[in-house]
Amino acid sequence: MILLQKELVLITKQAIAAAQAAGTLPEFDIPTTIPLNRPKKAEWGDFSTAAAMQLAKVARRKPLDIANAIAQHLPNSPLLGSHTVTPPGFINYTFDNKWLATQVDAILQTGPAYFDLTLGQGQKAQVEFVSANPTGPLSIGRGRGGVLGDTYANMLEACGYEVTREYYFNNAGKQMDILANSLRVRYLQALGQDEALPDDHYQGEYLADLGKDVAAEVGDSMLESAVGDFLPYAEAAMFKSIKATLARMNIHHDVFFNENSLFESNAVWETLATLDEKGFVYEKDGARWFDVSSFGHEKDPVLVRSNGVPTYRLPDIAYHANKLNRGFDLVVNALGADHKDEFPDVKLGVRALGMDDGKLDVLFNQFVTVKGEKMSTRRGRFTTLDELMDEVGADVVRYFMLMRDANSHLDFDLDLALEQSDKNPVFYVQYAHARLSSVQRKAAEIGLTREGGDIRLLVHESELGLVRKLLELSELLEMAVRDKAPHHLVWYARDLAAAFHTCYRDCRVADADNPDLSRARLKLMEAARIGLAKVLGLMGVGAPTEM
RNA sequence: GCUCACGUAGCUCAGUGGAUAGAGCGCUUGCCUCCGGAGCAAGAAGUCGCAGGUUCGACUCCUGCCGUGAGUACCA
């Protein structure tokens, strides 16, 4: 819970105790949690508590009487300006206007870190996302997981976690063999050989291009080379392309973890042996199975196939054990809905190993479709992230990927994304940032800056409304992290931009006839700009100073 | 069949067990001699899929049903 709410809860508890001491409330245990919520109407203040309704039973009084008794004993608090009691028993708290204005100076002094939280306490967190095998260009679906994972990592950092961004990939396995052979065929074709690409191979043009590149580089020296010799070329090229796509999206991983290393270090087989020792492995039909019955689950997954090759689950369990062994306090996977059945097995595997699977968390996302894709001329046009970014730009892609609850299907509205107008929510928010920047430039032209501004002059309803909206960022961040719901950022960014536009409309900032007020308002503009840039930064969307 | 999501304004979607359910788009109506009108203000628009239950209080939690989507491999 953030400081603001802690303070309000604290004074509410103190008031209850004081009312009891004064005899206006009977003796009862003061509840440890006091409900606090944002009221829907401005007239009900900034925060409300329904504590009196909850206490009605234990106090044996009407909620309204309890609320009045509590309100009468509320101690003074610098941030509390006034309070009211409304039926059926709400106590409404309104911030003090002077205190609100002081937060402008506080934001300027602390900078973007003003909005940060400390709930991570310097703990180590790891977020794994994208994790596509390097077999081709990234799809739009991977893009959503990538944006969600990266944004969640940003949010954790703002909460005080030390975050590692990780990409897990498999560079052995059947799919990579097919990739290598696809390249081999393309290479032979590039040299004029009459070689056909099998139907189950990768058909994309990108491999034909790569085949030509390899031919240009090594000539005909690989005519007789084995399939495996083509793998390094294919893998390197695919990763280069994937990393370039991710970089365009403002995504950068700290660690690229190779599944194969778990085999080389023998971790996979050691994991199997440990599970076996603990009695979780049995053999049936020549395969080795993971017995999850003791955890109350029914479907036992296969760990090792009857041909002796592990399924992906075994290395996945070994990988997550590896993560925990690296000392992460929190491990989050951003996964597509197609992994919903697998992740519980991984958690159980880690638990079976005797480790704390409570540290493992997951952020699932539903799939992405492109609105209009099925229409005639556009069919199949926007299948890769790069193509989508070519069309609408990285900022729009990130913003749109974040707009919906991750649990909901996302229908990417291409027409709206292409709209360079007020209809496009990205431009609305970015325009606010540009305007916040431009008004400060404009003021400077007539010799006005925020230096020496007196925030006590900020008394207009719209000014204080903007400050209030800025103060919501921290609690919103807390909620979005807790619920693993990055989409809240998008809605907040829109609200903050709107609060600014209203203020801008009502309050002239750069006014040569009112230099003192101008300086105070310039402080507010910069505080708002810092806040807006903070949200955009969390979303990984650019904050332009002009458009 | 089973598992997991999602059903909220004409459309796209927000909504932390609290009060008279919100925003954008679209529609209607105002606002630039003035810092970026890519903006602001106001209005119309709702059986929160249906039916029960828990609770002082349910869009929110539980159960059932209906609808939509995804997953149900010795693929990843």
Topology diagram in text:
Elements: H1 3-21, E1 47-49, H2 51-59, H3 63-72, E2 80-86, E3 90-95, H4 97-110, E4 124-128, H5 140-158, E5 162-169, H6 173-190, H7 205-218, H8 231-248, E6 255-258, H9 259-264, H10 267-277, E7 281-284, E8 287-290, E9 302-304, H11 313-325, E10 330-336, H12 343-352, E11 360-365, E12 368-371, H13 385-392, H14 394-403, E13 410-413, H15 414-418, H16 425-445, H17 461-482, H18 487-506, H19 515-539
Parallel strand pairs: 4-5, 4-10, 5-6, 10-11, 12-13
Antiparallel strand pairs: 1-3, 2-3, 7-8, 8-9
Helix pairs in contact: 1-3, 2-3, 4-17, 4-19, 6-7, 6-8, 10-11, 11-12, 13-14, 16-18, 16-19, 17-18, 17-19, 18-19
The protein binds one RNA strand of 76 nucleotides through helix 2, helix 6, strand 8, strand 9 and helix 16.
Brief summary of the model shown:
The chain has 547 residues and is α/β, with parallel strands linked by helices.
